[in-house]
Amino acid sequence: MTPRLSERIEAFPAALKEQSELNAVITDTSSQALAHLDGDGTQGPLSDCLLAIKDNLNLVDSPTTCASWTLAGYISPYTATPVQRLLDAGAAIVAKTNLDEFAMGSSTEYSCFGPTRNPYNPDLVPGGSSGGSAVAVAAELVDAALGSDTGGSVRQPAAFCGLFGLKPTYGRVSRYGLVAFASSFDQVSVFARDIDLTARVFEVIAGHDPLDSTSAAEPVTSFSYDEEHARSLTIGIAREYEHEGLDEEIGSRYRNLIKFLKSEDFTVKEVSLPHTDYGIAAYYILTTAEASSNLARYDGIRYGMRARVEGDLEGLYTDTRSSGFGPEVQRRIMLGTYVLSAGYMDRYYICAQRVRRLIQRDFLHAFKEVDLLLTPTTPTLPFPIGTKVDDPLTMYLSDVFTVPMSLAGVPAMNIPMGQSRGGLPIGLQLTANYFREETIFQLSRFIEQRYSV
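Now predict its structure.
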């Protein structure tokens, strides 16, 4: 442990207090981080870094709340695999961050601890559901942070907060110790302010884990920038991603980057992802179905809050779940239960699974022609707190550009592209074929070094 790192850990509570109005952190774990480093002294690739983790990742002897009253009083008895890998690499984990309850949301407003605020303008949302992790990095409370990305929950807040936000290939990072929302979508993901640290954190947490049956045994290579390699990449532009709902300033930045890449002699090709428009519908059918199943375990019996101790068992379940879950989680459980019910499963759930396969096929066909896809990350700039919480359909459409990659399971990353005329961050998204995160890093570094906004 370097003296500088110990000093930074000790200074964290004061820095957190200064930024308390942002409401980015649920639990300050700096004392635990200091004790761990004092006792361990681990030196590794992250031994110079302060990190935060989203509060749906378990850290032994710390609360794991998922920003829900349902888990009030729960203390984790173990540490999630990606979190343990951070510790083994020497990182100091100083905070567990705010999120939309059980990672269900696009604004970090659906939290029992109140909304997280955007550091560029506290009247605006930071994106979600990993908004607390994004804000902790953007406000420079920590160097990097882990979130979870189910349908855009890292890429969208990264765009709203001016960060790099990587969703790896599904199965690339162990889900052991990540509280499940939608198990076939959830992926532990990374926020950082530069591409080098994004890659470094990814390389630490990625890799096979026998504790996760969906963990892939693909090797993880170290990122080393090669400009010649970057220039050899073919960039795909999906015609379905520039439409009427796209903010004018985001669209302008998107088109300008395409022009820049062409001026640098990159091969840029138009491709089609024809089933993109079905992504949101399929995503919300499949994820709510998985959520209704995963959240059935929160019954007031095994752990977390219990609404009462007397009366019949059905009443205990009803009262506990009604008072423990917030309105958005309840909405998704009800939707998921409906689409899985007798008479409707074939009409909705099975149909959505077929659409998912078609969307996956779209990406596989595109990657026969190109190495990367360039798209917007979000259709809008950060929006005011409170404007979409009562309009779930509008809120769900915040993820219209990130959901298809989650349905397909391919890696994708937000790259910061400067600010709007009003001083708000703009982000664009790079997507690669399965297990080709390093390809994303190559082009991102080229843009980071060469493109002037």
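The chain is about 40% helix and 15% strand.
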